[in-house]
Every structure is written in C-alpha cells, then in structure tokens.
Amino acid sequence: MGLPYSVFVRPMLSFVDSETAHSISMRALSGFGQSRVGQRILSTVYNSPELPIHVFGRLFHHPLGLAAGFDKGAEALSAWPSLGFSWIEYGGVTRFPQEGNPKPRMFRSNKHGALVNRMGFNNPGATEVRDRLIERRASGKWPKTPVAANIGRSKKTPNESAASDYSQTLEMLWNHADMFVLNISSPNTPGLRDLADADYLSSIVTECRLMAERKGGGKPLLVKVSPDASNEEILSSAHSALRSGADGLVAINTSMHRPVPRNAASRGVFAEAGGISGRPLQNRSKEVISLLYSEVGDSIPIVGVGGIESPDTAWEAITSGASLIQLYSALVFRGPSVVSTIVRGLKKKVKQHGFVGLEEAVGYEMP
Ligand SMILES: Cc1cc2nc3c(=O)[nH]c(=O)nc-3n(C[C@H](O)[C@H](O)[C@H](O)COP(=O)(O)O)c2cc1C
C-alpha cells in the first residue's frame, strides 16, 4: 500500500494546500475509518507486528503512536489503531474553544520532509471534546489501545492562571484518556513557552497532580518539552516537573529554528512563521532524548518524537532513551504504511542485537 499511496494519494493531496489535505484525510478517517468494514480493510492493509513494551504500567503492543496535533478534536480515535498505531495522543485540547490562527497556517517542504505550522491550538475546547468522547464510548467506538490527551493553555488565559486552566481541562478529560501530556512547548501560543520556567511549571504540574489525586489517580502526567530551550533550561524544566510529580517527558515539540533551504520552494516555506517538524528535527530530538535519559532516565520514561520516519530513525530515538515513540510529519510524507514499515524494522533490529525484547534497546547507545 506504500506504493499506491505515493503514486496516487500523495500526488493528489499535493494539489491542495496542506491544511485541506489534512482535512480530507481526517474526513476519510472519521467516516470510513470508524466503520467496522473500514477498520477491517485498513487493518488488513496496514497491520503492524507485535513488539510489546510495558511503559507506565501498561502494555503497548509496540512503541509507535500518533503524535499530538493530527487528531486535535479526537474525531477519528478508532481509525488510528487500524492504521497500525499502538497508541494515540489526541489534542491539543484547551479549556475554551479556539479558532486558531488565520489560514493558511500549515506549509510543507517535500524536499526537506518538513512541515511548518502555526495552527495556534485550533480545537473545539474541553467541553465539546469531552461530550464527543462520552458519546464515542457509549456507542462502543473506544479504541482498545492506550489513549493520551494533549492539553494546552487557552490563548485567553494569562500565564499567571495557567495552572488552573490546565487542571480544569484535565478534570474534564479525566475519564477520557489513559494518560495526559501537558504541552508547555508549542511555539504558536504567545507566552506558552515561558511556562517551561521552573516556577510556572512546578505550579502547573502540582495543580494537575492534585486534580489527578482528587480524581482517584493512577493515570500518568507527562510534560512535553521544546527543542529550542538550551540544554540547561530543558534539564531545569525536567527536574522541576519531576519534583512536582510528573510521570514522564515527551521530547520534542516543533522548533523555531530552520535548516538552510535546499530549493526556492523550501525557502518560501521556511520563511513562514511557526514551528517546524519532520526530518529537520531528527538531530535535536535525539540530542534531547539522550540528555533527558542520562539525567532522569532512571526515574521516568521518555517519549521520543521528532523526525521519526524510518526504522533507523525510530531505533535511534529508542536507543537514545525513548521507551515510546511517536510521529506526525512522516504520516504526511510517507503515508500510513510508514507505521508498519517502522515496527517491522524495529522488530528485526531487536532480533539482530540478540535482545530478548524492546526494553533492552531503550538507552542502549548511551555511554
Ligand atoms: C500541524 C501540527 C500541529 C501540531 N499540534 C500539536 C499540539 O496541539 N500539541 C502538541 O503537543 N504538539 C503538536 N504538534 C507537534 C507534534 O506532536 C510533534 O511533536 C512534532 O510535529 C514533531 O514530530 P514529527 O517530526 O514526527 O512531526 C503539532 C505538529 C504539527 C505538524
């Protein structure tokens, strides 16, 4: 199916702008992908092998999940496992509904395998997402895989009130996810990245932890970090998050830095405001995963994301210290078959190294 996607579907989608292409894919997945027949067909084509790993006290059938931002409103939850993903992160969801930035706000560079986006947390808001998910569960369309919710700060909420904005969204979504990612690292909400500052972050995680305990606990809280902070700042955020009760870290979000463009089209794309994702993130992602693994890897699991597009890049993220991995951009450039290609490749690498399971590969490359 990799071939039909690259020969037919991707060229067709490349005639429309990136956000329209995304909307077309989402419509197909939230319609056809939710039906039993649709799911059966997709699972037959995109089936991923088993490469189990236990993280956060749960079994993941393999490590590769869908990254935040693709299914912002949790509209196609049950389609993702049929494309081979072992877990899903929906969102970013904010406490209040948001339109996001004016369009166009998503751009692609085929040459670099990169996207630039300044979506700005467009999403229906926590109340509507919660209601949608209550309905989904009632109609028996809840996926069997672990589900994470990505929570962002509402644009209209000042940083001084961020902790209660995050914790209210957490409260509303509590019954509708197995784990939660506190996103303090998107570049497209003014001031959001200031929340990585140890004091802000500690109040956000503390308030969310209290809310989690009020709700009965038992669901991990993760913090997603920015690639653009210095290593010292990232470590300071990680320690602050850990001290305040975070259970895991996600590395990394999109970046404001740009590589040197290799053609005129990419020059235009890179000149757009917003965060870059995809292949240009590979090195920094690996670097941040290693940094976090060497500093806090003994205490908490790390989720690796950024430029994962092949078995080699996935293996590098895992051997740098990621227990779970995610992708977004590679789905746009390579199509859904990238998921099973990566998992199959990882399985082969585990065998080649003589490892009993994937757990042994986590952090294997670390000195
Ligand atoms: C269009 C778009 C929207 C995104 N929205 C979110 C978001 O709402 N919350 C978040 O934490 N990350 C968001 N991300 C970042 C991704 O989850 C991921 O961290 C980043 O794209 C790097 O992974 P990739 O190189 O596989 O794309 C978004 C990325 C893109 C391209």
From TrEMBL:
Pfam family, one: DHO_dh
Pathway: Pyrimidine metabolism; UMP biosynthesis via de novo pathway; orotate from (S)-dihydroorotate (quinone route): step 1/1
Alphabetic keyword roster: Flavoprotein, FMN, Membrane, Oxidoreductase
GO biological process: 'de novo' pyrimidine nucleobase biosynthetic process; 'de novo' UMP biosynthetic process
Subcellular location as annotated: Membrane
Catalytic activity: (S)-dihydroorotate + a quinone = orotate + a quinol
Keyword Flavoprotein: yes
Enzyme class: oxidoreductase
Entry-linked InterPro entries: Aldolase_TIM, DHO_dehydrogenase, Dihydroorotate_DH_2, Dihydroorotate_DH_cat, Dihydroorotate_DH_CS
Assigned GO CC terms: cytoplasm; membrane
Cofactor(s) for this UniProt protein: FMN
Flavoprotein listed as a keyword: yes
UniProt family annotation: Belongs to the dihydroorotate dehydrogenase family. Type 2 subfamily.
Annotated protein name in UniProt: Dihydroorotate dehydrogenase (quinone)
